[in-house]
Each structure stands twice: as structure tokens, then as C-alpha cells.
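Reading group handout, session on sequence-to-structure problems. Before we discuss, look at one worked example. The prompt was deliberately terse, the way you'd type it at a terminal:

> structure 3-hydroxyacyl-CoA dehydrogenase (EC)

The input record follows.
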Amino acid sequence: MSTVAVVGTGVIGASWAGLFLAHGHDVVATDPAPGAEERLRDALEDTDRLRFVADAGEAAAAADFVQENGPEREDVKHALFAVLDEAARPDVILASSSSGLLPSVIARGCPRHPERVVIGHPFNPPHLIPLVEVVPGRETAPEVVDRAVAFYTSLGKRPIRLSREVPGHVANRLQAALWQEAYSLVERGIATVADIDTAIAYGPGLRWAVLGPFLNQHLSGGAGGLAHVLAHLGPPTEEWWRDLGRVHLTPELAETLVAGVDAELGGIGDDQLVAARDAVLNRLLAAKAAQPDLP
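And the output record:
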């Protein structure tokens, strides 16, 4: 059993804490927000092995692994990681849940040991979604990445290891590409917010939840597989790429998107939606785990 420091206990941090506790680790948590400890304990079922401290340095000093979940601001990250770098043992990995900042930028706050800084970006909610993107910075030691991947794997996660850093990592960049066209289709009046959600959730999204985009393309090619798809559908796909919309998130467009979501929900509360989503996710993950032929 080891001790994991959870620095920042908002939605992501609380979910991480629950996962660490569920896998037998002790958790020492910290968050400067008023009422943070009460909210965290309310969110977790088992808090016997949870300790909450006021200072991030105290949490890091007690930890064998640090998972940071602070605001997505360089100045905040630098100040926070300076504290973590000073307090944590030299062998302790400092992993950030940052969804887009480069680890080399975050590591500027660690003058003592920048080689132990790595991105460990989860997908919300981390206690359910298996993906973790492990991203090294320019000074990150390879063995730190190895250890981070091994640790996340021991939690039942499915980590991917990026060979180099890029803004937004991998999954968020893929999402951003989809959002760009989705927003553009709404802006141009081609489809509503609800139509686009239906198109994904009841179309390719169902297949994407089982297999990724490349394997789905491979299966759609029949006996010829991906090679057949690329040979026969590659040219029209390139034409579609050239026709994809460029969009600016203006206040007017933001208002349209928000109104579209409100209309689509039709009074369904966020708590209801989260509970329904998580119930389906649990069943889906169990079904996938029972299929040994799925990669």
C-alpha cells in the first residue's frame, strides 16, 4: 500500500481520490477552497484512509505519488509545482491532470527535479473512464514515464504514452476536431445541437465506444480492410476535409449552443443525466472486459 497526494479536490481530484482509495492506497488530499474537505468527504463512500491537510507541501511530503489537479493556468501551476518540488522526496513522481498545458511548461516551476514531472491526463470521470494520457516533457526521465504508466495500469487504467508533448495531448485534439465541425454545422444552420448529438451518440459514437477510428475503418473495408477503405474512400474524404468549416466561438454562437443544449435536455437535470451516463458506462465497460478479442 502506498500514499497518493491529491492536490486539488474538485470534480477531477475527487474522482481520482475515489479511485486511489478503491485500489487500496492511502490518500492525503489538499485544496485551499473553503469547504473543500467537507465536499470531498461527501463525494466519497470510504474516507477511512483519507487525510485532508491545509498545505500542498505537507501533502507532497507524505506521498509516494502526487496527482495534481489545479487550475489550468501557467502561473498557478508554476507556484504550485515549486511547492511540490521542494517538499516531495526526489523519487516521487509529480503528475499533472492538465488537459492541455505542456509538461515542459509546468516543469518550469520545478527547479530541483524537473525530470520527475509528467502529465497524467485522465478523462472525466477518472474513476470510470480508463484512459490516461501520459505525456513526458523535454526533461522528463524515461523511467518516470515507465513508472507512471505502470502505476496507472495497476489502477485498472488504459494509459497511452505519447512520444512527445503537444498542446491538448491526443484525445482532446481529436475531440477539438469534432467540436470544430459540430459548432460550424450549428452556426451555418445545417443541423441543430440535438441533431448533432443524436448523429454521434446513435451513430459512429456507438462503434467508437467499442473500437477506435482506425479499427472501425478497417472493419468497414470488408475483406480488403483499411487498405481498401483508403484506396476507395480516401479521395472523397479529402474533399470533405477541404469543405470542413472554420468557426470562431463568438458570443452569439455560444448563446446558440447553450440554448440548444437546454432545449435538448428538456428539463432533465444534470444529476439525472450523470447517473444515467455512469450506469451505461459501467455496463459498457463490463461488457468490453468480457470480450477477450477486443484490443
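Points for discussion. First: The beta strands are 3-7, 26-30, 50-52, 65-68, 93-96, 117-122, 131-136, 158-161. Second: The chain has two domains: 3-161, 171-289.
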